[in-house]
Write a structure and sequence with these properties.
The protein is of the alpha+beta class. It folds into two domains: 151 residues, Trna Endonuclease, Chain: A, domain 1, CATH 3.40.1350; 78 residues, no CATH class. The protein has seven helices and 13 strands. The protein has a four-stranded antiparallel beta sheet with strand order 2-1-6-7. Strands 5-8-9-10 form a four-stranded mixed beta sheet, sandwiched between helices. Strands 11-13-12 form a three-stranded antiparallel beta sheet. Helix 2 packs across helix 4 and helix 6 crosses helix 7. It is elongated, with a radius of gyration of 20 Å. It starts with 30 loop residues before the first strand and ends in a 6-residue tail after the last strand.
Length: 265
Amino acid sequence: MIPLSFEAHQQADPPPPLNIGRRFADPARMPARFIRPDGTEHELPWLEAAGEQRLEECLPVRRFPVCKGRRSAPGWYWSATDRCLVHHGFKAMRTQLMMLDHDPVVTALACRPVELSWHGRGGRTVSHAPHLMARLADGGGSLVDCASRFGAGRRLVWRAAHLEGAAAAAGWHYRLIGLPQPVVEANVRWLAGYWHPRYAQDRLPEVAECFRTPTALAEGVRLLGDPIAMWPSVFHALWVGVLCVPLQRPLHERTVAVACTEDGP
């Protein structure tokens, strides 16, 4: 009964690795292109950019096009972590933004803030801007690419192997993430309806005290007072990690919750 970790929200069977059969690009020779908040474009060696630049504050290096006939289109996601809008390009990416926004180890999110380049087959330059970047609580970072419900394409899987090596060299992480388990996504999507700080109503300490021991949600809400007033605060407490529940099972009024500590419930 703990909040989802950065590793735990992805699908149980993520896209399989591809046997590339060739050596990886050297991270020390990879240039990184990024656009600072003032709109100026810069390029630095990747290892320098990862260690010295606040990439989570950078603008997207590439925008997602609007394609006629597609059922989903680019849009904006309001991030409770950043208290601002974050761009997304398609439905699966929006879902991963929501999952990362809920993750307690994520402190900032950005859409395509950096583009890495390397030499591929025949000396051809390959450039790739990962879909998302997450700044983590330990000061590190993670680059994320989002696979759709149809899975990751062969080209993306091939590039992922190079990006994983580049991220590891900088002390970062890289993940090619599949869709979350349906029940987890449904639970987090419901809680995301209460992500805004206004739902706290300055009652989170009271909520945590009420759930000091494992208690059914409905029982805890009854003890706190008027259910109409308290359910939003309890759901917000679940979103921000004040309360913990097993999100791998359907969330309902009889779900048992408990106040979280730094070491878990």
